[in-house]
Design goal:
Strand content: 5-15%
GO molecular function, one term: tRNA adenosine(64)-2'-O-ribosylphosphate transferase activity
GO cellular component, one term: cytoplasm
Protein name: Initiator tRNA phosphoribosyl transferase
Structural class: alpha/beta
Largest sheet: 5 strands, mixed
Helix content: 25-40%
GO biological process, one term: charged-tRNA amino acid modification
Keywords: Transferase
Number of domains: 2
Order of helices and strands: EHHHEHEHHEEHHHEEEHHHEHHH
Strand order of the largest sheet: 6-7-9-1-8
Number of strands: 9
Amino acid sequence: MSTSTSASTSTSTSTSTSTSISTSISTPQPPPERPLPPQQSHALKSALLALIKHPDRISIRLRSIATDASHVAALPSTYKLPLIPNERCGTWYIPSSLLIPGTGPAYFKSTDGHTGEWSFSLRRLNLGVLETVAAYEGAIVVDSSKGKSVSDALSKTIPIWVGVWNRVLFPEREDAHALRFPEGVVSLSDAAQIEERMPGFVEELKALNLPLPSLDLPLIPIHITPLTPLPPSPPSHPDFLPLYLYTASTTLPPAPLTPETYIQGAADDAEAWCIGLTPWLFWSHKDTLLSTPEPDLPGLIAELVASAPPPEEGITRLTPWLSLGPLSALPDLNTAPAALSVPLLPNPKVAQRQLRRSYSCIARFLTPHLLRIPYVPLSATNPSSTGTPIPPSSDAEQEIPQILILSPSPSDLGSATALLATCLHERLVGGEVQTKERIRMRLAHLVAVWEGVRPARASVVGVGEYLMRRDGEVG
């Protein structure tokens, strides 16, 4: 007889040394874009601020997105590769019909490419991108930028990511270790400082002891924009797997804000203007939305949002004994041998704080069940140390307690709770002292199972503080 434990969270209301481009690249590159003169730059910023102050002008944003997306639509047939949107902005520029199931999205943050803050994120490994590149012998990542010719995610974050993975997977291919940035975007000084950090990034990735993905060839990042001439046939890269980095928006001189104004990076900060509209709804009703007068758009969008089917969210198995899902998958708790409900307010920041304050309560509830679960050390060669999508196959395994975490935000709140559970189990049964490095490793293994694991930094820090404080009390 299997044992099931449900820990559910719920709301309390309805809730680079030098910059180089490989000679093997045959794709024509556009000339470097010159910085705008100070006066024009100031005017552009003023125009963007005006738009921010008037988020109700949704029609301008939607028309600009549709204009940029018309160029994106030509890429798959030209390069014979799948499109991968970079969340969250890039998802707006790819019609739903052009997305291939199982090929995305990517999650590269511009903040990991900000000057002086260059980083290889251990929380955003983007293993799914590697799987897509391996399956299709390349891919095209689509993103957009507001106020820059190339977003920091495309110009620096991804080239760093490519460089780290190439050095880990192909240590003998020194020709694949050079950092490749878009021409004229990253200074020689910045490139040199990034290169200094690369050995550290490589060692951090190795220390995670993850199962390594399989690629036949190293990656090569190739930056393209709407100004890049489309080749008559897919370029050949015999020694590399191409990862095209496409900036969907174009830098234009500033213009007065009119209904026909083009806004660069119009999809940026969608939460501030979309009033519930999603990329999927936009592409499903594009013609209607683009033909609707501005005053009528909020009402139309409200109707579309209200009538849209709920997103299909299933339960994801993170380990042989731990699963994570949305509150909509809530079973009859009266039939569960044990259950715990943690009420949370709807505001995400408040809910994160409430969850952190509940770690002690959740740990007390989980402890007797975790003590009955055998410990399997983290291993790059033993996938069962993290998770498997295969259901229990033996009677003995079925006797292991099954813990189900349900949350209104599985990626954030639910993932933080899952991290707490796996780290606590490792401490209680495996005898592993929980350090920042150990918690980072455990989180990376969860991400390797499901890239939707994206707990807030404060929640991860809270898990570490609770476990290390608990170790201190035990000691």
